[in-house]
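Feature request disguised as a bug: please show the residue count (557) next to Vacuolar protein 8 in the output. Example input:
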Amino acid sequence: MGACSSCCADRNRSGLYEPLLQENEREAVADLLQYLENRTETNFFEGDPLRALSTLAFSDNVDLQRSAALAFAEITEKDVRAVDRDTLEPVLFLLQSHDVEVQRAASAALGNLAVNTENKLLIVKLGGLEPLIRQMLSPNVEVQCNAVGCITNLATHDENKTKIAKSGALVPLTRLARSKDMRVQRNATGALLNMTHSDENRQQLVNAGAIPVLVSLLSSPDTDVQYYCTTALSNIAVDAANRKKLAQTETKLVNSLIGLMDSTSLKVECQAALALRNLASDEKYQLEIVRSRGLTPLLRLLQSTFLPLILSSVACIRNISIHPLNESPIIDAGFLDPLIELLAYDENEEIQCHAISTLRNLAASSERNKKAIVEAGAVERVCALVLNVPLSVQSEMTACVAVLALSDDLKPKLLQLGALDVLIPLTDSSSVEVQGNSAAAIGNLSSKVQDYQPFISVWDAPSGGLHGYLSRFLESVDTTFQHIAIWTIVQFLEGCDSELIDLIVRSPEIIPAVRQLTQGLDSTSPHHQADGDNMMNDESEIVGLARRVISMLSQTD
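Example output, currently without the count:
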């Protein structure tokens, strides 16, 4: 605040103000000097101190305005609190000055005050955006920097974002993002990032021409600018229409983001992987990331000890793995072991979900890949963990086992590893998805196997055994569950294992339930009426399978 004190004190003592100042202005100068000498004990946001500052701010004398602006800037540098309009109005008035020094100091003060949540709203409500936009157009770099910094702070409040987007601020912000001054560039890209958190504002940003600017600044030497631009593009890529636009116009985007995954900044690496994750919602980008050699840096991030890096990279590889053509390249790049290790990452449920979901995707369309996943130890790890992980992870794990169980060659291995011991208890899970996935996995395992002893050994246990599961599902009101159970029984009967067939026949619950299903469902039940034609199709299949079971059993008598 030295500059402000000397401005007021020196000129006052020299007498230069004497013939020019109004009486109230002379008193305000004297009072302000007194308050500044005791600044640690003075509240400048109310009472006489604020009145003294306001008198100088509203003066026609530019020197007094400079003193007021400098005082506001220094005071707010050290003391930020919620203020009322009596404090903000003189600062906003000073913003409209034609004097560069007044503009610079006033915008700095307003930027400081805009750190406070309540102030963010009040500044915009009192019309602060218009003078800030004018100052962004100033040829003075200091004024630009402060004005953009203030806009950046204001844009962190959700209620302000749309107002800023509609105020005309985005075009000058986008232009200033290319500034040669790194401070201006940093503030401008930070402001653009803050505007990317809603669909409407992202569209306004795209319309303002921000995309090519953000992409070009990915190569900035400044890690903050890299971070702001990478994160902004990641948010923009959430929208399908924006991904299409990016694909059409920004041919270097993927390579730039892959390069940033080798940044020396952890936050830049993390955001680059997240941006690629969002882009990989589309098939084109799923393929392009692999073709552009993005797997190597992703694998390195996946093996990090830093949770955000692990999360961003595993989320990215999960999306990339959706494309069938990427399954083998991902496996060949060495992802299986790290993904299987992450199944036990109990610090973060989302990481576990992404890891197992990726393994399921990799197993989707190739017998070779299914075999590689099993040989890598995925099933052992799932069996060891699945009963004690969160429901969301259980759902993904059981779905993965169901996919692996489609392989006739791998079924004996899965049964040998004890898959039934964990799948059967999960058919009685509190989660419908976990129940269905577990039952589907059992059904897949039951088809075309040579040895049914693993099924016989779990007939009564654990958790009520195979017998309890089949009985519950046959008696369920859910037609999907009925269908899985009756189809599984058909597989058992087709397997012609006399011991297993005898257990089915002697069950006091299974055969009566099957006979009930041969009669069809009650057409007046709410469940039946709600699902309409799909329900009728399911019912027809269930009735057919139930009648087939009765017919097959009659032939074994």
